[in-house]
Each structure stands twice: as C-alpha cells, then as structure tokens.
TrEMBL record:
Pfam families xref list: Ferric_reduct
Annotated membrane topology: Multi-pass membrane protein
Subcellular location: Membrane
Source species of the chain: Vombatus ursinus
Transmembrane segments: 71-91, 120-143, 164-184, 218-236, 257-278, 290-313
Gene this protein is translated from: STEAP1
All copies of domain Ferric oxidoreductase, residue ranges: 120-253
Primary localisation category: membrane
Homology family: Belongs to the STEAP family.
Name this polypeptide is given: Ferric oxidoreductase domain-containing protein
Disordered: region residues: 1-40
Keyword set includes Transmembrane: yes
Length: 339
C-alpha cells in the first residue's frame, strides 16, 4: 500500500513537472497563470513526503519526455561545423607539412588545431542566431504582410536562437581559455628559445615588430570585450533575469548588443589575420585559411543587417510589423489563390 502510494506520488510529480515544462513553453498558459490559481505543492515538501529523488523518473513516463528537444538542432549544427573545421584544419596544418616535407606537426592537434575549430564554431553559431531574423524580414517584405506563416524550418530555427547563442558563448569561452594557455605550452617555450637563438645568430638586438605588437594588442582586446558581451547576453537569457527586464530592454540587449558582439568577433578575426589577407602562402593546397571561412557567414549577416537598416527597408518593415499590409501584394496573392 505504502509502495503503491509512493508510485502514485512519483507519477504525479513527474506529470506535474512535464505539465510545468509545457506551461513554461506555452505563452498562453504561462500568461494566464496568476496569483488566484492554486499554488503548486512545494517540491521540497513532496520530496520529504515521498523520500523520492526528484531526478528519477519512472520508466513508463520516460519515453513520454523527449530529452532536450530544443537543443537538437543547435547541437547537430555545432557538431557538423566542428567536425568539418577540424578535418579541414588538420589537413592544412598537420597533413600538408607531413606530406610535403615530412614534418611532424601532430602535436598541434590538442591545442592549436582545436583552437581554430572553437572560434570558427562560435562565430558561425552567433551568425546563425541573427540569420533567421534577416530571412524572416525578407519574407515579410516579399509577402507584404506579417500575417502569412513562416515556413516550418524557419519557425523551428527562430525558436532555437537562444540555444544557438548559448552554444556560441560556450565555444567562445573555451576558445578564450585555450588562447590564454598558449604561453604555458612546452612547445611554445622551445620555440621561444629557438627564436632567441636565431636572433643571436643573426646578430639582432631587438626582436620588437611594431605592427605585430599592435595587431595582437588590438585583436586580443576585442576578443575579450566580445566574450564579455556574450556573457551578458547569456546571463540575460536566464528566465529569472529576462523576467525582470521589460520587453524593450530585453530586445535591446539581445538584438543590438548581440549584433554588436558579432561585429566585434568579426573585427577580432580580421585583425588577427592582419596582413595574411594578402599573403598567397596562406592558400595551402589551394584552400583558403580558416579565418577567411570563419568570417564569411558573419560578413553576410552584418551586410544584410546594414541593408535592412536602410530607410526604405526599415520603414517598410516597421509598418508591416505594426500590422500594415501591402494591398498590391495581398491582391496578387488572392488572385493567384483563386486561379
Ligand atoms: C578572451 C577572449 C578571446 C581571446 C583571448 C581570443 C584570442 C584569440 C587568438 C589567440 C586567436 C588566434 C588563434 C590561432 O592561433 O589560430 C583568435 C582567433 C580567432 N578568434 Fe578569438 N579570442 C577571444 C574571443 C573571441 C570571440 C568572443 C570570438 C567570436 C565569437 C572569437 C573569434 C575568433 C576567430 C573567428 C578567430 C580566427 C580563427 C582562425 O580561423 O584562425 N574570439 N582569438
């Protein structure tokens, strides 16, 4: 009997959590929940009552709840981009010197190669946060109304933007830690000694290269600011923080600051590359360097964003989002529908 009561309580708790989760994602039920509705039982109280570990879920209920459904698309995208970039960088930085000169650069894989993969994934995911908004604006401009439904793939993508952003922050944080670990590596210390020896051989007193010093100071500083802004974006996406903001404040941070962060990340990569942009030696086996590939999508997103900010488009989009409908486009669509 006691056992049966326990099972019923477990089921109730699990169903309550599922219901709670569904309510959380359903704006209608979320908004309609007010102080007049009965309060849900205290979790701590239930815990004490049943002695049941809240992280355990009965087997029959397990299949009803999907695991991290909103993370599927962003994680798949991140994994695909990471794998392709990893293979590409290994080919250029490790396999190419091995095949051409027999040099063993396999030691580069754990840190140097990985630290090319991490920023590429991070900046691409960040660009993917803002790309669906641009596609949605293009749809609205094309349809001349906001009342026509977006395609399902775009809806799904729009709903996963928060997860794309959080993953971008995760990869950027790892990239920062990996980057800051560079001088700690033994390979770096040996290289430094070798450079010093070469300098003595060349009878050079000063190794200072002014433009290289400026390049590094600027790109590392921009990287740090970009990471700090990403952290701010991540913090404001926590429900308890976002709930304390007004819609305008939340939108300002997530949209304006996010795009600014993408811009900083792109300038960071541009300045990191510095004069390598015009160096043909960077094209190993006719392949472009990763920094060129990394900024491709962000550059497209930033350019589209600037185009949409032009007064002719901006005013039209604002009107459409306030409910205005383009009579020409609506009539055309109706005629086509009747045909
Ligand atoms: C504390 C923050 C950061 C530091 C210290 C930092 C440092 C670095 C360093 C040292 C490199 C050169 C890597 C190499 O040796 O190949 C680099 C490259 C790069 N970083 Fe950062 N970074 C930071 C934040 C960011 C952020 C927030 C982004 C973008 C969201 C970003 C995007 C890039 C990109 C795209 C490259 C070019 C990678 C390549 O293709 O070679 N970084 N960063």
């Amino acid at each position: 009997m006691e056992n049966r009561k326990d099972i019923t309580n477990q089921e109730e708790l699990c169903e309550m959590k599922t219901r709670e989760k569904m309510e959380e994602h359903d704006p209608l039920t979320k908004n309609s929940r007010d102080s007049s509705t009965p309060k849900r039982p205290d979790l701590f109280h239930l815990h004490q009552m049943t002695g049941f570990d809240e992280f355990e879920c009965p087997a029959d209920l397990r299949h009803k709840q999907e695991l991290f459904p909103q993370w599927h698309l962003p994680i798949k995208m991140a994994a695909i981009i990471a794998l392709i970039t990893f293979l590409y960088t290994c080919l250029r930085d490790v396999i190419h010197p091995f095949v051409m000169t027999g040099a063993h650069f396999f030691y580069k894989i754990p840190i140097l190669v990985i630290n090319k993969v991490l920023p590429v994934v991070s900046i691409t995911l960040l660009a993917l946060v803002y790309l669906p908004g641009i596609i949605a604006a293009a749809f609205q401009l094309h349809n001349g109304t906001k009342y026509k439904r977006f395609p399902d793939w775009l809806n799904k993508w729009m709903l996963a933007r928060k997860q794309f952003g959080l993953l971008s922050f995760f990869f950027a944080s790892l990239h920062a830690i990996y980057s800051l670990s560079y001088p700690m590596r033994r390979s770096y210390r040996y290289k430094l000694l070798n450079w010093a020896y070469e300098q003595v051989q060349q009878n050079k007193e000063d190794a200072w290269v002014e433009h290289d010093v400026w390049r590094m100071e600027i790109y590392v500083s921009l990287g740090i600011v970009a990471l700090a802004l990403l952290a701010l974006l991540a913090v404001t996406s926590i429900p308890s923080v976002s709930n304390s903001l007004t819609w305008r404040e939340f939108h300002y941070i997530q949209s304006k600051l996010g795009i600014f962060c993408l811009l900083l990340g792109t300038i960071h990569a541009l300045i990191f590359a510095w004069n390598k942009w015009v160096d043909v030696k960077q094209f190993v086996w006719y392949t472009p360097p990763t920094f060129m590939i990394a900024i491709l999508l962000p550059a497209v997103v930033l350019t589209c964003k600037v185009i949409l900010l032009l007064p002719c488009y901006r005013k039209r989009i604002q009107k459409i989002r306030h409910g205005w409908e383009d009579p020409v486009k609506i009539n055309k669509a109706e005629v086509a529908f009747q045909l």
